[in-house]
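Can't paste images in this forum, so I'm doing it all in text. The chain is below; anyone willing to post the predicted structure tokens underneath?
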Amino acid sequence: MGQERHPAAVIINGDLALNDGQAGDYEHFAKLIAPLRDADIPVHLTLGNHDNRDVFYKVMKLGRPAEPPVVSKHLSVIPLAKVNLFLLDSLKGTNVAQGLLGNEQLAWLGRMLDKHPEKPALIFAHHNPRLAGDEKYFDGGLEDSNPLWDFLETRTQVKAYVHGHIHDRRYYRHRDIHIIDTPATSFVLRNAETTTGWTMAQLSDRGGEFTTLTHLKQHAWSGAVRKLMWRPA
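Text version of the structure:
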């Protein structure tokens, strides 16, 4: 991986398939992440609008829990040394641009956050939030963004929401919760503006340092660093 230390976790935040979640997509994806797993690096996945949940589970058999916390949703809580990561499933339907969490998933998130108040919490989902004041948000984002934010604001351990979906790289805040938009790893949507890459995060109980690494080395995003401080508990 070209890093001095292995990451504590790798998060691939949805759209594991190219278009509509074919078995061949997930078979190819499994080969791509095999070196990470062979190196004993934990790999955690969410689902996006180009995924097919049933096909994903048929191919990626180890990814399906015996007793899912919410039926037909792929969820997990990842405890790390300094923070807890909460991975949500915003897939509303294959090739449906809009995302949806739903009341049952929000209730599960509430229970998990209340069970883990001791460390900063970062929320991961594929879809971008659609929130007042963000003039650049994509209408195909998360339909229940406002209920989610009403919900997150009251849990002061929640410090950031991390998403993909719009193939861009931006940082902004809503009600003092950071919103971190990470680039796509393999599909360039707007060649003149964006590129592919990944984000390395150094996380602490006070904030995070996020470094963008790109496949196109001369791109403006390459090596760009953003330091964030968490809101008070």
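The mean pLDDT is 93. The first helix runs from residue 23 to 38.
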